[in-house]
Design brief:
Serine Threonine Protein Phosphatase 5, Tetratricopeptide repeat; single chain; globular; mainly alpha; 6 helices
């Protein structure tokens, strides 16, 4: 994980230590029970807490969003607040040290949204907008 040690977005060392501990706990919970809703919920809560401690860390953002998606999908087979999750994954790509992985996460979110039965919810995105965003993200990928 890449941490910013200088600049205006630098987090205090205590926050970084606490965030890393929460991330390790959340990852351990996730790996220990990816099919159990209560375990996924606990992991999502830990990883979201870590994201709040270090809000400008792309890895923390990606872990929090990914765990929330896993928990929501296991619970209701849907994604709550997809526009917010897309915004956060976009920020993770801009802030993180691993932009290709962040773009892949965003691409996967949009693909998942295209496969869900609902068009859009209170905080949702219309499928046409999701497809447009997916096309834009795919056009950003380097031709390797």
């Amino acid at each position: 994980m890449a941490w910013s040690a200088t600049g205006p977005s630098a987090a205090p060392a205590k926050d970084i230590s606490n965030a890393v501990a929460l991330q390790l706990a959340g990852i351990g919970e996730y790996l220990g029970g990816p099919d159990k809703l209560d375990t996924l919920t606990s992991a999502a809560q830990d990883l979201e807490q870590a994201r709040r401690l270090i809000p400008y860390n792309g890895d923390a953002i990606s872990l929090a969003v990914g765990s929330q998606l896993s928990q929501e999908w296991k619970k209701d087979r849907k994604c709550e607040q997809p526009a917010l999750k897309a915004q956060r994954l976009t920020a993770a790509g801009a802030l993180g040290s691993d932009s290709p992985a962040a773009l892949a996460n965003l691409t996967n979110l949009y693909r998942m949204l295209l496969q869900t039965p609902t068009e859009s919810g209170p905080n949702g995105l219309p499928k046409a907008q999701v497809q447009e965003r997916l096309n834009t993200v795919q056009s950003l990928k380097s031709p390797n």
